[in-house]
Design brief:
The complex is a heterodimer of chains A (180) and B (200).
Chain A: E1 7-9, E2 16-17, E3 27-32, H1 37-44, E4 55-57, E5 63-65, E6 72-73, E7 83-88, H2 98-115, E8 129-132, H3 148-165
Parallel strand pairs in A: 1-5, 3-7, 3-8, 4-7
Antiparallel strand pairs in A: 2-6, 4-5
Chain B: H1 3-16, E1 24-27, E2 33-39, E3 42-50, E4 52-56, E5 61-67, E6 77-83, E7 89-95, E8 98-106, E9 112-119, E10 126-132, E11 136-141, E12 144-150, E13 153-158, H2 163-168, E14 177-182, H3 183-187
Antiparallel strand pairs in B: 1-2, 2-3, 4-5, 5-6, 6-7, 8-9, 9-10, 10-11, 12-13, 13-14
The chains are: A alpha/beta (180), B mainly beta (200).
């Protein structure tokens, strides 16, 4: 599925497994690119990279979708079949800026509606909700990703999403159509 | 001093001086930290940052992985060789993946090479390279692993992209292809590609 209400469709040509996602999906995993959105998209299109993510979240502008949510992106090794992934532009230790937070809130609301992903904190591979790369330990790789500031921002993201769901905020309309 | 006495003294001296070999090597933290080796029971720091370390060449050399550049989320790493006797350090290989193992191999004619195993943090596939110390990488294969290493040769197994998740869950997976390589052939310098430009 391409979530064109909340993300710009920007498919990559390689580095994912067709129809590889296992439902019910556990949740969304936050990553840090250790670089720029442009460079990450370019690397994911290189067959030698052996890596990708479902979404890319730039510091400015709309969320981008690189991989169909029916397909398995190659982002966190053993966690790949059960989790969707979003690569955030920036470096380890950075915080997400307002644009990036808003993009993820919108994405979470869409995934909550379309995939039943719960608006809860996930802190281990067996959990459900909004997780982060290093929660998977060695089996998921990259023990520093995405860094403490972003891990701590998850609570803010979930609060914003929950408020929007309860109709207390108008900034994050729940997508209703055009989910190709 | 008579030559015979001198030679005898030299032999006794050599037998008393302990060989400069490392009995073990370690990195202080799994997430990276100073690299230590042990010589004659004494621990010594040889590098401020490493991720994994291996004693090779009967303790005369220590290989360790350290920060590199590039790759998925900047996971690229570099392999250094530390000479225990001289303290000299050499960078022998850089990869865009995490280094998971370094082992010494010897060809039938006695040439030494290092077999490097790697793993990417996205798909979770393993990748391999053969490093000739004076020349650098002379052989590499993605989505492959060293299945066996014997005197003078090694065997490589290849796997499909969809196999890696099953291999991660310790399922038994048959390789798609398996091939044995002669290390002397791998280390043989390849002729430079011919210039295909029209000289006219």
């Amino acid at each position: 599925m391409w979530l064109t209400d909340v993300a710009v469709k920007r498919p990559i040509s390689c580095n994912f497994t067709k129809k590889g996602i296992v439902r019910p999906i556990h949740g969304l995993v936050l990553h840090i690119q250790e670089g720029s959105e442009k460079g990450t998209y370019s690397w994911f299109n290189n067959k030698e990279a052996k890596a990708s993510s479902h979404f890319g979240n730039p510091k400015a502008g709309k969320l981008e979708q690189f991989v169909d949510t029916d397909d398995m992106a190659w982002t966190q090794k053993a966690g790949n079949p059960y989790w969707l992934s979003v690569e955030n532009e920036g470096f380890h230790g950075n915080r997400l800026n307002d644009n990036q937070v808003n993009n993820i809130v919108r994405l979470l609301l869409a995934l909550n509606k379309l995939e039943g992903i719960s608006l809860t904190l996930a802190d281990s591979p067996s959990g459900y909700g909004l997780g982060y790369h290093s929660m998977g330990g060695k089996a998921w790789g990259h023990p520093q990703c995405p860094g403490k500031p972003i891990i701590e921002q998850r609570q803010t993201i979930l609060s914003l999403a929950s408020s929007s769901l309860k109709g207390q905020m108008g900034d994050f309309p729940i997508p209703t159509s055009n989910m190709a | 001093m008579k030559p015979s006495i001198f030679l005898l003294s030299l032999v006794v001296f050599c037998q008393c001086v302990p060989a400069q070999v490392a009995s073990s090597a370690r990195v202080s933290s799994e997430d990276g930290g100073p690299v230590y080796i042990t010589i004659d029971g004494q621990e010594k720091q040889i590098a401020p940052l490493g991720y994994k370390a291996w004693v090779i060449d009967d303790g005369h050399l220590v290989a360790y992985s350290s920060k590199g550049s590039g790759g998925f989320e900047s996971e690229g790493q570099t392999v250094y060789l530390y000479n225990v006797k001289t303290g000299l350090l050499r960078r022998i290989f850089s990869a865009k993946f995490e280094i998971t193992n370094v082992q010494r191999a010897e060809s039938a004619s006695g040439k030494v090479a290092y077999l490097v195993s790697m793993e990417d943090g996205g798909l979770g596939a393993t990748h391999i390279a053969v490093v000739d110390p004076p020349r650098g990488r002379v052989f590499h294969e993605d989505s492959a692993s060293f299945a066996a290493v014997e005197k003078g040769r090694f065997t490589v197994n290849w796997y499909k992209d969809e196999d890696w998740a099953r291999l991660a869950s310790h399922a038994e997976v048959q390789p798609t292809k398996s091939k044995q390589f002669d290390l002397d052939e791998v280390l043989k310098p390849k002729p430079a590609p011919k210039n295909t430009r029209n000289p006219g």
